[in-house]
Amino acid sequence: MQRRQVLIGGASLFLAPAFASAADLGAPAADVLKRDAVAARAVLPKQAPKAELLQVWTGPYGGVPPWDKVTAAKLREAILEGIDLQRAEIKAIAENKAAPTFANTLVALQMAGEPLDRAMSVFGVMTSNIGSNEYEALDTEVSPILSAAQDEITFNEALFKRVKAVADGAAAAKLSPQQTRVATRRRDAFVRNGAALDAAGKAELGRINTALSAAFTAFGQKVVGDERGWTVIPTEAGMAGMAASNKAAAAAAAKSRNLDGWVIANTRSAVDPFLTFADDRALREKVWRKFVSRGDNGDANDTNATIAEIVKLRAQRAKLLGFEHHAAWRMQDTMAKTPAAANDLMMRVWAPAKARVAEEVADMRKIAGHDIEPWDYLYYAEKVRKAKYDLDQNELKPYFELNNVKQGAFYMAGRLYGFEFVKLAKGAVPVFHPDVEVFEVKDKASGKHIGLFYSDDFARPGKRSGAWMTTYRAHSTYDGPQNVLASNNNNFTKAEAGQPLLISLDDAQTLFHEFGHALHYLSSVVVYPDLGNTPRDFVEYPSQVHEHWVLTRPILDGFMKHVETGKPMPQALVEKIDASGTFNQGYATVSYLSSALVDMDLHTRADPPTDIDAFERDSLARYGMPKEIVMRHRLPQFNHLFTSDAYSAGYYSYLWSEVMDADTWAYFEESGDPFNPDIAKRYKSIILAPGNSTDRAEAYRAFRGRDPDVKALLKVRGFPTS
């Protein structure tokens, strides 16, 4: 699916410098940073961590995670000790007798918990990318403990008073713009998370947060449990219509499970190709039903009761904090600000998307000769695509060999932003799985080291589904320069040994999307870690825009070459893709947007539902969901919403970000050069590099000279713009 989204906004134009440095963004001078770091260190107790996984990372490239030393038992030991060490540091900051200053309070808070942060970086990878029974048990045990430890910090009255004093006195203390932003955002986050509640309120909020943490863990593990399943296709006739590369991957999946025949794993990367190309309608339905019923089978992995508990707890928390519902609480620190603003955008797109679905279904019925069911949609859409545009998706796959696609992404990063990616030899640094490749990232012009990029491309039992980006270490300079350790994680099914792994155009765009997240972090000039993360409805924008470069001519000519002929994709085929660019956008938009609408519907209720399946059905009926399409993420498997609060009342953010993405791509296109060096430099310096050091709405205006135009999004999707 193409992930595309809107900024509607108000504030005066922010005239940032053309090429921002940390100093340009209002950071204090180097000598001030050094002085503040020394003062902050003096506040913190001198503690020597005992656990192996709490130690400062050693080795090359500024130190790297010791993946070769990780076990679940060692992680448990590290996390529990790390919480104790952090608790002692917070106590020292809160009980400091000296008057609160930015250095002895805010900088010290940035430093507090560094050993625990290292352990948690490892913990996140082992639970997401490895996910054995041992790590699931560890996750279940420590998640509530970690939640309670965070609440201890938020509910510390003495600490909050110090933070508030620094933020309220920022002007009098002549804090720099970045220091002021750090202090005020910390103060506001404390309030938003319950620091101003009375003792009884804090106790109740602590109970809610601990229960939520346990429920999030349980939900994620249940979905992964269902995704460990598969469908066996016993005869080759059942694979009729599938590309040779897909058949080979399914055969390899069967072999890896010691099964005969072909296996369609219960993950999107395996299911979607089958639904798109397999001729056997009954088998398509079987595979589809297994996939869309993840978490909804009335067994040990059923998530409905867990969801009901999560939404009940969220509603209780919102009410306790003085908000009408969870969405109102969750959206304070976003660009949209309110559910109404997000809904306005979604409904503007929903109507034309549904109208387009009706047209798409009519075209498919002419070919199928029967009503279109959800397991038919992708299959007959391909037939229509072939008929209308003489374009077969299987015709494209030989041009998208996985390693070549990655090299194309690296070329894009070099051409736009001056990055160079150099593959490290096996064993140069530890990795958490033999499949992981590691690349050093350098500045091409100066040769300066920027960081490492870890690439984990393949599905495995226990690994969570989908594609995502994470960092093990982000850039900052407040306590000396820190380089970036970034990773991309995919779920491609391995090809047979010695065979090329061919992926779809959609997969290639997804790879560029996640790589865009990595480029965001690798471009950072952020001084303080607190300013590294942007609002949820901005964070997808820098990733989504990079999808557009997949089909640019320099990348096609240099990297997307046919695996058999070695020739680049001919322009005639590119023109077919361009001509069909808005094809099936009804399906793509409705499947995504229905999930976003139901998310917002669920989280704008003061009294949340208890029957989750019934709520999903009723919500979709109210929106007039076409019967031929299912939500991209049904509630029982909606990891975005129920493994954390991160995307709850926030799945709309892909659409919000797509408005900026589409408008930005239009900017490059209008210049006549998709690699326009001046626009690329400004994009890097104003949009990517500052993180959240400046207001992101103002930053967009500085980059584009105006607010983004929603018409660019409608045009990209082929919908009416009036």
Question: What is the helix fraction of residues, given as a range?
Answer: 40-55%
* CATH structural class of the domain at 402-523 and 537-569: Mainly Alpha
Structural class label = alpha+beta
- Taking Cα atoms only, what radius of gyration do you get, to the nearest Å? 25 Å
Segments where pLDDT lies below 50 for 5+ residues? 1-19
Write the CATH architecture name of the domain at 402-523 and 537-569: Orthogonal Bundle
Cofactor: Zn(2+)
Keywords: Hydrolase, Metal-binding, Metalloprotease, Protease, Signal, Zinc
InterPro entries: M3A_DCP, MetalloPept_cat_dom_sf, Neurolysin/TOP_dom2, Pept_M3A_M3B, Pept_M3A_M3B_dom
Family: Belongs to the peptidase M3 family.
What does this protein structure show overall?
It is a single chain. With 722 residues, the protein is of the alpha+beta class. Among the domains are: 45-196, Orthogonal Bundle (Neurolysin, domain 3); 230-292, no CATH class; 402-523 and 537-569, Neurolysin, domain 3 (Orthogonal Bundle), CATH 1.10.1370. Helices cover 54% and strands 6% of the residues. The strands form 2 sheets. It has a 5-stranded mixed β-sheet with strand order 3-4-5-7-6, with helices on both faces. The protein is globular. The chain starts with 29 loop residues before the first helix and ends in a 5-residue tail after the last helix. Residues 275-716 form the Peptidase M3A/M3B catalytic domain.
